[in-house]
Each structure stands twice: as structure tokens, then as C-alpha cells.
Amino acid sequence: MRPGLNSIILVVFLLLLDLYVFQAVRAMVYMSLPRVRVIAYSAYWAVSAICIIMVLLLPYIHWHSWPAQLKSYLMAIFLGLVVAKLLAVVFLLIDDVRRGIVWLIQRFVPAQSTAAAEGTVNGISRSQFLSRLGLIAGGSLFGTLLYGFSNKYNYRVHKLKLAFKNLPASFRGLRIVQISDIHSGSFANREAVVKGVNMINAQKADLVLFTGDLVNDRADEMTHWMDVFSQVKAPMGVYSTLGNHDYGDYYPWPDKTPAGHSDMQQKNLERLKQVHGELGWKLMMNESVVLEKDGGQIALLGVENWSAIKRFPRHGDLRRAYDGVNHIPFKILMSHDPTHWDAQIRPEFPDIDLTLAGHTHGMQFGVEIPGLKWSPAQYFYKEWAGLYKAGEQRLYVNRGFGFLGYPGRVGVLPEITVIDLV
């Protein structure tokens, strides 16, 4: 099998990108010792050649059969390099545009009036300054992504207290632990995951709620983790829902017909439902339960994945889950995708007090410090991490317990949410 047109286009793109960024590398080490220049040039082109060769060899190396963890690391490094170079290109383009403008001005204005345009910054030319700045920015981004590999099991407990006027008095003080997006198929460090589960149990929750994406694609990804996650316990129970990945839509099932039907995929979904039960979790499939305590009642609703974004499945039936508990004064909903909140929950079900979601992972990359909360996720999702409020309704978006795609976390760490109702 020969490389396809897409592979050839990608290789051409990579070559052009490498050639353009190399101009900055060459400018940066131009005045260095010959040996330093040889090392810099050789290292740059060796890494670039490896990336290009990998793309060309993809049709021959049975990539899909490689271990999932190895693939995720290699893909993350490859994409990290590309994104880092693209970031450097931004600065190089600024310099090229600047030099182009200077050249045009010099064609029509006496040279002495444009001498300042080619001035220096801290003793180096503007071109050298922008080239170095671009390489530093790109290198810093790539280094940050590599550092993020060490954070994927760095679990953080987020605690918050929520007050609701209509919460029955007997439920004041109820402690809920929310976890989401386990993605067991991505795990490789058993000791670290056990530590995370121990952190969940250490919160001494009355109720544990899991808001979807137990696996990446296949139910058998849970085989080696059953004894770990079955340890998640709570006096009032552990309840769960399905996320978009749980349906197996992103896996190349061998028996999938042109119309999109696969018996293997359907059996996989049924097996995953059984897994929830074997863990001791109550899977909520567009249904509700009434929780009682000292004469008070609250309703817990759980729906299948429901997204306002077309590329994600919409199997949830909130009306079905809601029927029968409309008279209960306080309602909590588990719905995997936070876009459900604005699209249907708020306008059609204004008496659902608290919605718990996940899905976004906070893009596993961002900045969360006092006074600054940013992630690329915010350009795709209005609600992407943490607490949101509209009127008397609240939404909490969990940042995810696991990881997917990029095997790391930068700034947005894996989360265990603790909610105390007061």
C-alpha cells in the first residue's frame, strides 16, 4: 500500500514548514562556532526527518495495531512539534511582513528617513529578535507539552458549597462526589489510578455521581480496572451515565455496514452497560430515582449522551427521565455534555436545580490561577470547567478523571469534585 494523497500533502506541508522555521534556526546560530552550527542543524533536520519518515511509513507499519499508550505519546510529540513550529511561524511572518513594509518604504522614501526601521533591540537586529522570540515561544510550548506528561495522574480535589432555597432541610449537608471521563483505555499506571480512587473514597461522600465516558471505545478496556473502580463506594449509592465515547462510535468495527450499523458495536454497548452493574454502579438510562432522607425527598435524573453539537450523539431523553419526578422539590441531573444545559435544560426544565456534566476535559490544557481562567476549550464550549449559574440553576463541569488523545495535562489537572449542599 502506497502513501495516499493526504499523506503526500502532509509531507509537503511539513517540508515547507521545516524549511521556513529553519531560517530562524540558522539565523539564531549563525555567529556560533562551526561545531555548534553542525549540531544544531543536524538535530533539527534529524527530528524533522523522523516525523516525515513516520508519515510515509504509516501504510506499512500497521499503526492501528500498535499499543494505545505508545501511539498516544508518539502522536502527542508529533503534533506538539507541529504546533510549536506554527507558533514560531507567527513571529517569523511578522518579521517578514515588517521587512516587506520597510522595503516598500525604501523604494519611495530616501534611505536616511528609514534607517531607524532596521534598528536594533538589545543589541541585535529586529529580525534576529523576532526569530529568537519565535523559537523561544515554540520551544517553550513544546517543553510545556512534554512536562504535561507527568501531570496526567496528578489528581486535584475541587471543593465547593452550594446553597439552594428549595433543598429539603434533611438534605442540607449532603456531600456529593462527582467524577467524570475516566477513559480507562488510556490508563497505564495502576498505582497512580488506585491512588486516585483512594482520594475519591477519602472524601467520604454520601453520594457518588459519574457523568460518562468510562472507556475510550470498547468495554474490554475496563477488564484490568474492574477491581479498582469497584472500590468506589458511597452510603447512598454510586450512579452513572453514558458519555459520547461509551457508544463506540469512534472505533473501526470490522462488521460496520455502509449504513453505519454494527452488531459488534451494539454488543459492545450492551457489555458496557453490564460493566457498570458489575462495578456496583447504577447506570441511569434516561431515568430517575427518588432519594429519601428523614422524610425529605430529592430527585436524581440521568440521561444518555445529549449534545447540541451535531458530531456528537444525541441519545438522551430528558422528558422520559423527568416524567414521574416533576413534583419532587429539588432535582439533580447527570448529563455528560455541558451544551445540553443551554440548549434544552434551562429553557425547557427550569426546575432542574443542579446539572452535573463533564466531556470537555478543559481541553487538558490551560491556565487556572487566581484572576485568570483560560483554555482553548472556551472557544468551543461556553461552559467548559467549573461552576456556572443562570438564575437559580447551576451547572458544574468536571475537568475529567482520565485523559484522551494527549497523554498529559497542562494547567487543567484531573479532577475529583466535592459538592456540599448547604
Automatic annotation (TrEMBL):
Keywords, sorted A to Z: Hydrolase, Membrane, Metal-binding, Transmembrane, Transmembrane helix
Matching InterPro entries: Calcineurin-like_PHP, Metallo-depent_PP-like, Metallophosphoesterase_sf
Any single GO BP term: lipid A biosynthetic process
Gene3D superfamilies the record matches: 3.60.21.10
Transmembrane regions: 43-61, 73-94, 129-149
Family matches, as Pfam families: Metallophos
Ranges of residues in domain Calcineurin-like phosphoesterase: 174-362
Name of this protein: Metallophosphoesterase
Organism for this UniProt entry: Chitinophaga varians
